């Protein structure tokens, strides 16, 4: 599906910092059922200054680079946030389909 995916939403940090769990993260960039950019199956949360480009076909991640959806993201600092129930997901993130989030902190 590379090249055919189009995102309409990119989650951006709402405050300084990111995930509590620091690790190197990598995976395939994609789009969930509600149009959010994903890293593998988790909604992607990126630093302020990151944007969607090329009419939603690429994501430009501040401090990392620009990548087409369907391609792999190289190892980047970050962590995961997981919520047991959809009602536990912070309000600003409920626009995406899942309850798991890949939070980049490059």
Structure description:
- With 106 residues, this protein is an all-beta fold.
- The chain has one domain.
- It is built from no helices and nine strands.
- The strands form two sheets. Strands 2-3-4-9-8 form a five-stranded mixed beta barrel. It has a three-stranded antiparallel beta sheet with strand order 5-6-7, with no helix packed on it.
- Strand 5 and strand 6 form a beta hairpin.
- The termini are far apart.
- 28% of the residues are buried.
- The model has no long low-confidence stretch (mean pLDDT 89).
Per DSSP E runs of 2 or more residues, the count of β-strands stands at 9
- Largest β-sheet summary: 5 strands, mixed, barrel
What is the general shape?
Answer: globular
Helix content: under 10%
Provide a count of the helices.
Answer: 0
What's the helix-strand series? EEEEEEEEE
Taking the alpha carbons of the first and last residues, their distance comes to 27 Å
Whole-number tally of structural domains: 1
């Amino acid at each position: 599906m590379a090249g055919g995916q189009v995102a309409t939403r990119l989650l951006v940090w709402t405050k300084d910092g990111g995930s509590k769990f620091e690790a190197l993260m990598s995976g395939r960039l994609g789009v969930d059922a509600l149009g959010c950019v994903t890293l593998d199956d988790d909604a992607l949360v990126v630093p302020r200054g990151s944007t969607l480009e090329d009419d939603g076909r690429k994501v430009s991640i501040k401090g990392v680079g620009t990548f087409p959806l369907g391609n792999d993201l190289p190892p980047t600092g970050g962590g995961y946030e997981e919520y047991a129930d959809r009602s536990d997901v912070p309000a600003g993130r409920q626009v995406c389909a899942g309850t798991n989030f890949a939070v980049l902190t490059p």
